[in-house]
Amino acid sequence: MNITENISLARPHDAYFEQVFKVLPVALELLRAFLPPEQVAALNLDTLKLSPERFLSDDLREFYSDLVYTCQTLGNKPVRICLLLEHKSAPTGRRIYIQLGNYLRGIQEEDIRQKRPKFTLTIPILFYHGKKPWRTKPLREQYGVVPAALAGYVPHFDILKVDLQAMSDEDILAMRDIVLLRNILLVFKHIREGKYIRQHFRDLLIFVRENVSEEVRLGLFQVTFLYVQIASPLKKDDIMELAKTLPPKESRRAKTAYEQFVDEGIEKGFKKGIEKGIEQVIVAFLKKNPDWSDDQVAEYFDLPTGTIKKVRLVLGG
């Protein structure tokens, strides 16, 4: 989805998903919180980085947004980690296996086009925040009882599922070492609940983590505040009253974002606000990935190439 051109009031969730999970510390928290410990131990997460690859076909874009990370195993084997947000508010049932099977086939076809000697191991992570519970059974179980002699014909692949409605707030708050992700999960889970957002506004909007730069934390605040303005049922004036309870830096940023809404309209304000908020994230991204071209970074963050050039000039190169 192109945030700078096609952001709409009907689909702010995928815009928010893409912006927050492009932040490396957030992605790391997600993997460490939801992958089984033995899988985390098998990955060299120090090598984790964003990839410019996308594998959604035209027909799948209706259902999902995707972000792709790459890393190495401890044995230096390549791994793709694909984060997918389901757009639908209700689970797609067992059709999910057809859709993700086609997605994984697209990845295999790319490996063949690139003449890689082996297929790249891929970990699909499905992020679901719809209201209805997710009760779809694993792929193997969709075939029922199969004689042991024929079991080898039953296809199977694993999906790591992040189902927010299956998690209580207490579960989320009790998770260790997800200081940034905690806010994001709670915002996603309760974005449709004005009363909850009003009661927990400050805790949801303030990102605190000692080993993450202030620029990244303020960037996450910016896109989260704009998401709340767009997607929550609270009136904009009510949100601005709540913003007065925030610390000075965040309160000033909230006021600026609100003025953009008033002066330029909701969609243009959201676009420009995300651009300004994500610039701090881009600074950290460019420091870690200096080999990416301006065009690659611009395409990945859905921003004009000129924005990336300006940020790179600030960094001195």
What does this structure look like?
- By secondary structure, the chain is of the alpha/beta class.
- The protein has one domain.
- Helices cover 51% and strands 12% of the residues.
- It is built from 15 helices and 5 strands.
- It has helices spanning 3-6, 12-21, 24-34, 37-42, 95-113, 169-174, 179-190, 194-199, 201-205, 214-231, 236-243, 248-264, 266-288, 294-301, 305-314; strands at 43-50, 64-73, 78-86, 121-128, 160-163.
- The two termini are 29 Å apart.
Structural class: alpha/beta
The tally of domains stands at: 1
pLDDT < 50 stretches: 1-10
- End-to-end Cα distance, whole Å, is 29 Å
Q: Helix segment count?
A: 15
Average residue-wise pLDDT:
82
Give me the strand/helix succession.
HHHHEEEHEEHHHHHHHHHH
Percent of residues in beta strands?
Answer: 5-15%
Number of strands: 5
Q: What oligomeric state is this?
A: single chain
Rg computed from alpha carbons, rounded to a whole number of angstroms: 20 Å
Order the strands across the largest sheet as they lie in space. 1-2-3-4-5
The best one-word shape is globular
Percent of residues in helices comes to 40-55%
Biggest sheet character: 5 strands, mixed
